[in-house]
Automatic annotation (TrEMBL):
Family annotation (Pfam families): ExbD (PF02472)
Protein topology in the membrane: Single-pass membrane protein
Molecular-function GO term, any one: transmembrane transporter activity
Protein's name in the database: Biopolymer transport protein ExbD/TolR
UniProt biased composition (Basic and acidic residues): 1-15
PANTHER family per record: BIOPOLYMER TRANSPORT PROTEIN EXBD-RELATED, EXBD MEMBRANE COMPONENT OF PMF-DRIVEN MACROMOLECULE IMPORT SYSTEM
Predominant location: membrane
Annotated stretches, region: Disordered: 1-27
Keyword Transmembrane helix in annotation: yes
């Protein structure tokens, strides 16, 4: 009997700690705080996000090199020059058309004058040159451009800001 008992003690069975555990323990991080932080971040970004109007594109193309022929010079002889002048520390603007002795505040009136110029010139080819003052808001420049496009002028350009 001592031999049997002694032989059982001689055999050493090694079990890793994982196998010694009777119950299966799964490690899971606490989800409630992570969900709370996620919702707080989501709420922060929703409340601090500012919506802006999308920027518009103004169609335009430069002339091809060497195409400044006689017909191009003839149409440039009578351009319609529209000057945009800032009034009241950039809050408002007025429009001046070369050859018209009044300042225009209403875009609809500007449109009617451009249509009248088309009838006098009998052409929609005559260029419209927009010259804004340096401190004029961009919305007024776009408004003049839109009225020239509405009047169906084909050549619309911008003079350099002085």
């Amino acid at each position: 009997m001592t031999d049997d008992h002694h032989s059982e003690e001689a055999i050493v069975h090694h079990e890793p700690p994982r196998k010694r555990r009777k119950e299966s323990v799964t490690m899971q991080p606490p989800l409630t705080p992570m969900i709370d932080v996620t919702f707080q971040l989501l709420l922060f970004f929703i409340l601090t996000f500012t919506f802006r109007e999308s920027e518009g594109l103004i169609p335009g193309a430069l002339p091809k090199r060497g195409t400044g022929g006689v017909s191009a010079r003839q149409t440039l002889n009578k351009p319609i020059r529209i000057r945009i002048i800032a009034v009241d520390a950039r809050k408002r603007a007025v429009y001046e058309i070369e050859g018209v002795n009044e300042r225009i505040e209403d875009p609809e009136k500007l449109y009617k004058i451009l249509i009248g110029r088309q009838e006098v010139l009998k052409s929609k080819e005559g260029p419209v040159i927009i010259k804004p003052d340096a401190v004029v808001r961009w919305q007024y420049v776009v408004e003049v451009f839109n009225q020239a496009v509405r009047a169906r002028f084909k050549t619309i350009g911008f003079a350099p800001v002085s």
